[in-house]
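My main concern about presentation is that the manuscript never shows what a single data entry looks like. An entry of this sort, consisting of the sequence and the corresponding backbone structure tokens, reads as follows:
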Amino acid sequence: MSRAVLLREHGGPEVLRVEEVAVGAPGPGEIRLRQTAIGVNFHDCYVRSGLYRTLPLPGVPGIEAVGHVEALGEGVEGLRVGSRVGYVSPGYGAYAETRRLPASLAVPLPDDLGDEAAASVLLKGLTACMLLRRVHRVSPGETILVHAAAGGVGQLLCAWAKHLGATVIGTVGSREKAEIATRAGADHVVLYREEDFVPRVREITEGRGVAAAYDAVGRDTFLGSLDCLGFLGTLVNYGQASGPVEPISPSALAAKSNALVRPIVFHHLRERAALGAMAGELFAAIAAGIVRPETFLALPLEDVGESHRTLEARRTTGSVILIP
């Protein structure tokens, strides 16, 4: 038996409750993992609220964690009991003390990356790698726009893009967050509650617009992000913190031959080779000090509801994790 957070109905953070669940021995190709740190993400909030109906109820939410291998199923190679691994999984189940997991999802962690740091950075770092190196490959001399630049993914985007030679414009909601975005690597920071980011981006780019806009905010910023693009620019909508985006006509992209992308990180990680390659890029970036894991808040598993409240209130300037 293991303690896990069970979601039985959609609703507010109060519907998340810790219960005892059976785990069992790992089957063929599986491992049993004793988890030490669990990442909390906006995706989890969408699943809990019912915005995403991708977890059959009752079910255990959560898509990333770090832990130590307790047992190996038949046919598992490359891991041993005691191996320290992290994972991201579209199959959910991360909000638990112990779980079974397909061994193909487990990524061995570098010795110099601690459990809490790994849980703070793995999904967000793989997402940043996907966005900057796969969806739109950032090149030296480009200017990009990053919304929520003080958030967990936002800071990684600012730091990594700056290292790649881009000029980074970030948007944030407060002066405190502006300082965080600047430290992360943003060259220009726009306080969107005090000024319209669209004319400010035009001013900074001298009317040329940006090569890419990375937008996890969604409804509140989507059309403005599109306006900020230059010719052949790409709008990367990878989240919807303010709500889902209303449908638009493809002709809205025609004025500057723009592209619109809605990437899902799990699609980029569906092959083991791709997962290994992107994890390798991320771990190398961490080792080089290009990106730094930042835990904003660590809470015990029992306080899972508070972790969701903190995220949804947009009080975070880094990652939120749970400690089983």
